[in-house]
Amino acid sequence: MIENEKNKGSIQMQRQRISKRQKVNKNKSVSINPLVLGVDLGGSKILSAVVNVKGEILSRDRSTTPAAKGPEAVIQAMLESAKRVLNQAGITTAELEAICIGAPGLSNPKTGVVFTSPHLPRWTDVPLRNIIEKKMDVKTLLLNDTNAAALGELYFGAAKGARNFICVTLGTGIGGGIVIDGEIYAGSLGTAGEIGHMTIDTNGPKCNCGNTGCWETLASGTALAREAKQRISDGAKTSILEYADGDVNKVNAETVHKAAQQGDTLAKELIAQLAYYIGVGLANLIHIFNPELIVIGGGLSNIGDMLLEPAYKLAGERVNKTAFASVRFARAELGRNSGVIGAAAYAFREIGKLK
Known about the structure:
By secondary structure, this protein is of the alpha/beta class. Helices cover 39% and strands 18% of the residues.
């Protein structure tokens, strides 16, 4: 889990033990407490962490994704991040059991190929797993980033003990990780869970995926910022600009939230509209999957009850009462580390260290 005062002591002891490990050969680490490298690749950030089988982070590196420069530049940035985080932990690649990358967009965990991603320009059929494995000479795995977050919450967070749940990440876009009977549901090609691209309004805004009216065009942080900018440009009276240095281009979900907290009428209206569309999408998921739990994460979830309670209420109004009564909602517990911890959990499970 996230490194805190409670577990710093045990993590420090493990760091000290790393230097006293048994000798390892080039291809496989023989460790007392196995370690993996988890990587959360996003359109704006690369987060890498050395994680142990308890879900504890020993070292962590965050850097900017050079997404606009294309796949080669992004992969190079990932390799540099990996080098830094291994140096922080005081280990070499030979002491890793595996590497696992959580990547945005459509990918196949079996082949290790990223088909495409709305947040990574010019990524088409990139064999990311094989490239990283060859460069680092360590067994490498690939899965969708929100599937990774779902696994993190399953093993170490809000979904511990759950068998059938959905992890929904509300951020720049909307991602989904679907767990059925304790297993990630990936579909025939590994592309299942793209819940942000289910159609909510056929006449809605254009999405980066090429369609119109996708859930994330109406219920994401990007959607909230877009609507706020439009209303401000149309002359609406609001204090939102005060939290954006007077620059409409700096308006984002955070500035809208701050204005709403101070009672701004427009900001509260925009968040209420966002909650409506989140609720519609949640109702669809409940109808289709009948989950026992829906875990809500992502930066937008930090708005809290102002956003989430009306969304849950709306979902309840649109779902059969018996079905809705069987669902509980929970905030994600792992925060920004959910992706790297979940990627690590996937790796540990694949190599037989987690069940």
